[in-house]
Amino acid sequence: MAADGARLGVAVSGGADSVCLLVSLSRLAPEHGWKLTVLHLNHGVRGEEADADTAWVEQLCAGLGLPCHCARQRIEPGADWENRARQARLRFFREQMKRHSLDRVATGHTLDDQAETVLLRLLRGAGPEGLSGVLPVTAEGLIRPMLDVTHAQAQDWLTGQRLNWREDASNQHLHHTRNWLRHEVMPLLAMRFPSAGEALARHAAAACEDRIFWTGAVGRAVENVFQPAGGALLAGLDAIRSVARPLRQRVVRAALARYASKMVDAAQLEAVMDLVEGTRTSRRVRLTGVEAWLSMGKVRIGRPVAHPAVDGLEIPAAGTYPMAWRGTSLWISRLDAAPVTLRSWKPGDRAGWGRPGRSMKEEFQRARTPAWERAGWPVLACGARVLWAGTLGAVAGIEASEMTEAPEWGRESPI
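The structure corresponding to this sequence follows.
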């Protein structure tokens, strides 16, 4: 988890688990040459009680002769508070790791936390990877040295060492799902299955071994199937379907996880798999922070598409105007039709000169342009008639010809 001489951040809330972790690491540090730095984040929802926790942690660190970096970030009460607070802590850890050149950040997760996490994810429909629970070591540099220790053992050890800790009153509030599991569900399970916590933790350990194996295989498959494209991953539908389904599901989940702001559950994954494996030729599935989009035989997984729209810019008939869009250059000169407007395309647009032509939708289909690229697509229009549309070019009758006089700036390579 940590090499000799490593610079370790230690997340300390003031509770029994984190105090046990800190004191244990401080006693082991001289033998391994570790340099410890304490990290404490005040969520600001318990007022004076939380401020007292912060002061207590600072006093504990002073007694141990350790630097302590505290921060305050208020997390507004409400739905999904637990996840938002967790995300805030992870951001805080990343910031502190960068600021203080920390190699690892140790957290005080125990066997009880592991059992609760596995049960919670199981009830929420997580897949095999989610059931691996809290990882002992993460790619971001978090380590959890106490996953084999129960909360009761941590408290007993501190009591035996005559050490104190702080009790967070909010840990008793049953409207938080994890607290409900901890105080209501797990004790009921233990009445019938005394080793329920240990059994769930063993399951997580076994699933973690599988996860390590699959992580390598999935990572290679993602690189083979998808291509990065500006905040998204693109793949041909046939390429995704060519992957065996057990691996295919993991590949799709991994692609979604790169952009999702929260864990993708089983129902969400199934919706995206239906997009990949179904019979529809065009479909869009939106999740939290990520979307999957099928169009023209391609699949895009990434952040939601947001192309700026052009509301309408009137262009005078006289004059010459240079334009460039997605690598396509265009100059507009001596327009006989007026007024001419530059705007984003809209449903119902048709290309043509003097009479309606094919619809823009038909033009996109002929050009095999995926739906996510169509948003904000620029067109030059005279009234309801489209004269030019992005890389689709100009309609017959107004395109440049050999007799067209190019402006000075375009004479070397007129189009």
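The two ends are 61 Å apart (CA to CA).
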